[in-house]
Design goal:
Blueprint (H helix, E strand, L loop, with lengths): L1 H25 L14 H16 L3 H8 L10 E7 L5 H11 L6 E8 L2 H16 L5 E7 L13 E7 L9 H18 L1 E11 L3 H16 L3 E4 L19 E4 L4 H10 L5 E10 L14 E3 L4 E3 L2 E8 L2 E8 L18 E5 L2 E3 L2 E3 L5 E4 L14
Parallel strand pairs: 1-2, 1-4, 2-3, 4-5, 12-15
Antiparallel strand pairs: 5-8, 6-8, 7-8, 9-11, 9-13, 10-11, 11-12, 13-16, 14-15
Helix pairs in contact: 1-2, 1-8, 2-4, 4-5, 6-7
This protein binds S-adenosylmethionine.
């Protein structure tokens, strides 16, 4: 028994060292991230133990938003899912977990692509293990391929194409990045995505990768695609107007014990899910179809200072600083105190001032009950 515990501690110790190495590569040293760094066995194991549980939970948010649409976007007998840059199968597990919780479940036909063959083997193993404990009927095909030079010819079209934490790993000079990334997504959407399908892109919540994703967003819109979510506006992204702004999520999350244990050894904190995402479609359906006209999305943390509470809201009127003085709090605007990053909200009778909008006595603040800001997401086991 004691020997088991000693060997478990040694495993956690060595995993922790590799998670730290990986974390530095993915943040501080990101500009010089080696190509195919997951060919390194230690980094691969660290990714599967630490980043897989964190990242696989993120896909639930775009899926929930797609599932809100009254046209029943995800309500199909069979859903064909292509995960490109699948790593150890992160999003496959996230998609299965999401559908496990639905009353009606499509059969899931996954195709997973990665440039590192060892990742595909790990993805297959995790997929088999997860499927054994899941109520979902699912199949998996894996393909060894490179997004930049060719991923072969996966049998499409697909209802969902997922690019999770891969777009910002494509190697290109800064001046070429936008063209490369937008061109790749555009090509995938035109060649591999069903006319009623959705492309889900997830990226780290870092300012640089987040802003680059917003640039891809604007380029895709110029090419005629529609952003389904998170945006509730159709025009160019207003966060790009100021060099310090970007847009990301920050959701409450209960990390599993291994992640907590590794965090406590190396001083990282994965106690919330931070990420940027984009859902793009070809058919013009948008999340705004299912929320009140003129709704706004909260795109900042609440900024609470003496005597007032402020937030940035984004919607058709742009990205707007919105303030309520504590003395103006009343029953009708009480919901302003409960707004968090990601909430969808409607304001009636707010007062526009130069550079900001003021919530005053008599303003009605209504939170969209289905916008799940701040909620704790279920863990992928
Ligand atoms: C950060 S991991 C993300 C894994 C998983 N999608 C997730 O969100 O956890 C990036 C993955 O993309 C793969 N990748 C990077 N560039 C690629 C390319 N050009 N073609 C195919 N796969 C690529 C890497 O091998 C790695 O498995």
């Amino acid at each position: 028994m004691r020997r088991n515990e000693t060997s478990r501690q040694a495993t956690i110790e060595s995993l922790s060292r590799d998670v730290l190495r990986l974390s530095q590569l993915l943040t501080k040293e990101r500009a010089s991230l080696p190509q195919a760094y997951l060919r390194d066995r230690g980094l691969r194991e660290a990714y599967a133990a630490y980043y897989l549980p964190v990242n696989s939970t993120k896909i639930a948010l775009p899926l929930r938003e797609l599932d809100r649409h009254p046209s029943g976007i995800l309500r199909k007998d069979r859903l064909r899912v292509l995960d490109i840059g699948c790593g150890p199968g992160t999003s496959l597990l996230g998609v299965m977990t999401f559908f496990d919780e639905q009353p009606v479940r499509p059969a899931l036909a996954f195709t997973a692509v990665d440039q590192v063959a060892e990742n595909l083997r790990i993805a297959e193993t995790f997929f088999q293990g997860h499927r054994g404990a899941s109520a979902v009927s699912a199949t998996l095909k894996t393909l060894h391929g490179n997004l930049e030079t060719g991923i072969g010819a996966p049998e499409g079209p697909f209802d969902l194409v997922i690019l999770s934490n891969v777009l910002s790993e494509l190697h290109a000079q800064q001046s070429e990045r936008l063209r490369l990334r937008s061109g790749i997504v555009q090509g995938i959407m035109e060649r591999l995505l069903d006319g009623n399908g959705s492309c889900i892109i997830i990226e780290p919540a870092l300012r640089e990768t987040g802003r680059e994703l917003l640039q891809v967003r604007d380029t895709l819109q110029q090419c005629g695609f529609r952003v389904y979510s998170p945006c509730l506006r159709n025009g160019p992204c207003p966060a790009l107007e100021q060099p310090k702004d970007w847009c990301h999520e920050d959701r409450n999350w209960e990390p599993p014990s291994t992640v907590r244990e590794i965090d406590s050894r190396i001083g990282l904190r994965k106690d919330s899910l931070k990420f940027s995402y984009l859902v793009v479609r070809r058919d013009g359906k948008i999340l705004a179809d299912c929320v009140e006209a003129g709704a706004w999305r909260v795109v900042s943390e609440p900024i609470v200072t003496k005597g007032k509470r402020e937030l940035f809201l984004c919607g058709n009127g742009g990205r707007v600083r919105t303030v309520r003085l504590d003395k103006d709090a009343d029953q009708g605007n009480a919901a302003f105190s409960g707004l968090a990053r990601g909430s969808i909200v409607r304001l009636e009778g707010a007062f526009p001032e130069p550079g900001r909008v003021k919530v005053v006595r008599g303003t009605i603040v209504e939170i969209d009950a289905n916008s799940t800001a701040g909620e704790t997401d279920r863990l992928v086991k």
